[in-house]
Design a protein that fits this description.
single chain, 481 residues, mainly alpha, Glycosyltransferase, two-stranded antiparallel ribbon, 4% strand, globular, cellulose degradation, glycosidase, signal, carbohydrate metabolism
């Protein structure tokens, strides 16, 4: 067992040059991570809105196709509602509540409110007109040449949608997953998930890349293909309903999603392994999902012979692609969830000649959470508003421009450029926003120009909600390792 202890120790090691932040307050970080979603809201804001510098915006969305598409979330620092990553964020918020809602305390109500803001929007996107699923609202090309507040938008609010003739299997399946996960979180089944999943994905398959074209690409192209979303969506519907048809679909298509350890808004592979492993362990079916989940875990561990990620000297996990903290938060979430599942099953994981238990996975996730919140070489929290030292010049329109209470006059498309160019800190603090994070050498440029490092996104924050909820609870002692 000494090898297990060595593995745990290596994960917990902090470099001698590490700048220590104050002790981590996970409950405070949890509160702020959920509050961030209020800053991303589109539509008519409720009286309960706590980030009061944000005001109503995009109140006519969907009018071009005669569907009320008011609401939902802006995905990042722009003013477009990309439904594909928004649905993934909603799924992850739902999963966070399913797994860790009991640890959220008074924040559970706010987490459920954040989920409902997404589900209300997706019910409009999928239920307003038969055989139509709205894919996004807002022309990204015109939006991205402007720097203006969402409250001032005068760019085209084009509505993009998929149909039987122009299908979007990954989009419809991810929305189905979001509604299914949300149903479990609320304890009330949204029957619409079944029609949403069967309207386009099964009978008329195809990628929304082709159907939405320039609206989706190059912004949120589905690179991994749509089969992972179909299996992911079916798995969530089975978890929500127990209908065997969906479990049969998952098993029948397991070969198409094996051997890939990616997880995020585009790729659902590792998430499928972990999600399905819960009932596969209990029912003794789907052993291939359990082995895939085991292999996924081994691919993360710093001294595993099958490691497929990299670690900075400061200890942050890296994968290829921008906005790296999306990987750190999502993979940390899966590590904790799988740790809980193998704890319940009294199972360990073989990684080469090592044996790994739940504590190792939790310690890995904790090292990532602590790094994000300030235990890193810079002593910088990558969550805006958490701690004393955090990014002040994030790439985010609403945060950068003066709010309406200070500057009630309209700010046009190009009138916001001076606010982008200034070296002054953003006037509005987007509390709880987790930025894209540092470079692989642990350096960070606090600059609006450095989009991969300074832009926050909903899909960075959503899995981090679950991670923080887990660590905000009293310490759990594992019975085996």
């Amino acid at each position: 067992m000494w090898k297990v202890s060595l593995l745990v120790t290596m994960i917990m090691v902090v470099m001698p040059t590490m700048s220590r932040a104050a002790s981590i307050n996970y409950a405070d970080a949890l509160r702020k991570s959920i509050l961030f979603f209020e800053g991303q809201r589109s539509g008519k804001l409720p009286p309960s809105q706590r980030l009061t510098w944000r005001k109503d915006s995009a109140l006519h969305d969907g009018s071009d196709i005669h569907i009320n598409m008011v609401g939902g979330y802006y995905d990042a620092g722009d003013n477009v509602k990309f439904n594909f990553p928004m649905a993934f964020s909603t799924t992850m918020l739902g999963w966070s509540v399913i797994e860790f809602g009991d640890s959220m305390g008074s924040e559970l109500a706010h987490a459920l409110e954040a989920i409902r803001w997404g589900t209300d929007y997706f019910l409009k996107a999928t239920g307003s007109v038969p055989d139509i699923v709205v894919a996004q609202v807002g022309d990204p090309n015109s939006d991205h040449i402007c720097w203006e507040r969402p409250e001032d938008m005068d760019t085209r609010r084009t509505s993009y949608f998929v149909t039987q003739q122009k299908p979007g299997s990954e989009l419809a399946a991810e929305i189905a997953a979001a509604l299914a996960a949300s149903s479990i979180a609320f304890g009330k089944l949204m029957h619409h998930i079944l029609s949403c999943f069967s309207t386009g994905p099964f009978r008329h398959r195809g990628s929304y890349n082709n159907s939405v074209a320039a609206g989706a690409c190059p912004f949120y192209c589905d690179i991994s293909g749509y089969m992972d979303e179909l299996v992911w969506g079916a798995a969530w519907i089975y978890k929500a309903t127990g209908i065997e048809y969906y479990w049969d679909f998952v098993k029948a298509n397991s070969a198409s999603i094996s051997g890939n350890f990616q997880f995020g808004w585009d790729s659902k592979f590792a998430g499928i392994y972990v999600l399905v492993s819960q009932w596969a362990m209990a029912d003794r079916f789907g052993a291939n999902f359990i082995s895939s989940a085991d292999n996924f875990v081994c691919s993360l561990l710093p001294n595993s012979p099958t490691k497929s990620v990299r670690y900075s000297k400061g200890g942050l996990l890296f994968r290829d692609g921008g906005s790296n903290l999306q990987h750190a938060t999502a993979l940390s979430f899966l590590s904790i969830v799988y740790a809980r599942y193998i704890q319940d099953a009294k199972k360990t994981i073989p990684c080469g000649n090592q044996v790994v238990g739940p504590a190792t996975l939790v310690n890995l996730a904790k090292s990532q959470a602590n790094y994000i919140l300030g235990n890193n070489p810079l002593g910088l929290s990558y969550m805006v508003g958490y701690g004393q030292k955090f990014p002040r010049k994030i790439h985010h329109r609403g945060s950068t421009l003066p709010n309406i209470a200070v500057h009630p006059q309209h700010i046009g498309c190009h009138d916001g450029q001076p606010y982008f160019d200034t070296q002054n800190p953003n006037p509005n603090i987007l509390v709880g926003a987790v930025t894209g994070g540092p470079a692989e050498d642990d350096t960070y440029e606090d600059s609006r120009y450095n989009v991969p490092q300074s832009e926050p996104t909903t899909y960075i924050n959503a899995p981090f909600v679950g991670v923080l909820a887990y660590f905000a609870q009293p310490t759990i002692t594992f019975t085996h390792e």
